[in-house]
Amino acid sequence: MYEYFSVFIPGLSEVVGSELTGTLYKVGINILEDGFVWYQSGSAPEQVRKQFFLNNTFLLLDLSDDLGSGLLEKTARGILQKPDQYFDSNYSQLEHYRGKRFRFVFSLENKLIKVDAQLLFALEERFKRKFGLRVDRSNPEIELWFLARRGGSVFFGLRITYHPDYKTVLQKGQLRPELAHLLCTISDPTPDDVVLDPFAGSGAIPLERKWSPYKQIIAGDVDAKLAKRFEIKAGKQITVKKLDATDLHDIKSGSVNKIITDPPWGVSIGKELNLENFYDKMLEEFSRVLTPNGIIVILVGKKDIFKSVLNNFASNFQILKSYHILVSGKKATVYKIKRLV
Fold it and tell me: Are 7 and 77 found together in one domain?
């Protein structure tokens, strides 16, 4: 069994815990907190790093519980002072990385910090000598993280996931793949799903949904240019068209059983939206195209306005779950809603 710890989007602990146990081999969860999980699994690192619903995952090397100030440095000094034979347990995984460039990273409650320069140098020399690694603080091939959690625990591990710089690869407003994946997970995917995303934009949600079995995926955007660009990227697996979520005349009534989407939070194609009117027309169309017991998973930035409008459709919809999260530092809510019979 391997031990791991991972960080993920706060507010979605329930979903992440379920996804871990459903996708990895022989999972045992030790701690599941908001945005953090420590667990064991029979799945090797090569498989665990493919779980895209996690922001970052680490192979656990060591763990320290010692309340007090300077916890990160205390943990580092403790590891530095241990005899060589101590490194024959979890640390044996580092033998696979001999000759690799490495650096240490210190994180205190999700903020990167600096530690004493002499301590850092001594730690680098110890790991360089013991595991045949090469120090490179600016361009490493692997990273060893000391991650301090609120409450006094420090997890020390080898980072096994490396995401691209999303600032350079994602378009403005495009969802990160981790969040898009979790939205799809919340919808309870099945092979019979006819899925609709009428606010596809650059296609984050439909591109993630296609990795689970489905019958059909329909995606589009009111912005014809966005829809056209996404059509080229989507290929033949996804039906892409120009769509206006307030007037889905191209979609037959009762023909869709899952809607997974991220509508505008107040602006659409550069124009301010009257959100009450917008949500009202959108929900009316969603009610029409959904099958009885169909599911909506929707991410909204103005939950009070959305819930107020949703209350006008009390005979049509029922909220099954709500998850309060942060998206790019802004408060947002994910709703899982059922279309009533």
Answer: yes
Mean pLDDT (the chain, rounded):
89
- Give the amino acid at 330: K
Helix (H) or strand (E) holding 33: strand 28-33
In a 13 Å sphere around the CA of 339, the CA atoms on its Cβ side amount to 23
Instruction: Using alpha carbons, select from 203, 207, 195 the residue that is nearest to residue 258.
Output: 195
Measure the CA–CA gap between 129 and 124, rounded to whole angstroms: 9
- Identify the bridge partners of residue 85 per DSSP, sorted by sequence position: none
Q: For residue range 3-38, list pLDDT tens digits in order.
A: 999 999 999 999 999 999 999 999 999 999 999 999
Which amino acid type is present at position 167? K
Place of tokens 């403005």: 172
What would the pLDDT profile of 204-233 be if each residue is shown by its tens digit? 999 999 989 999 999 988 887 777 777 767
Whether 72 contacts 113, CB under 8 Å: yes
Of 166, 188, 212, which closes a domain? 166
CA 23 distance to own-chain centroid: 15
Last residue of a domain, one of 123, 143, 166: 166
State the total domains in the chain.
2
Q: Please give the model's pTM, rounded to 2 decimal places.
A: 0.86
d(CA 63, CA 31): 13
Same domain, 182 and 277: yes
Would you state the pLDDT for residue 270? 57
Using the CB atoms, write b or e for 11-30: b if 16+ within 10 Å. Answer: bbbebbbebbeebbeebeee
User: Strand runs (DSSP E) across 53-208, as ranges?
Assistant: 56-65, 101-108, 111-112, 134-135, 142-148, 153-159, 194-197
- Which H/E stretch holds residue 23? helix 13-23
Q: What digits encode the pLDDT tens for the residues 324-337?
A: 998 888 899 999 99
Range of the domain at 105: 2-166
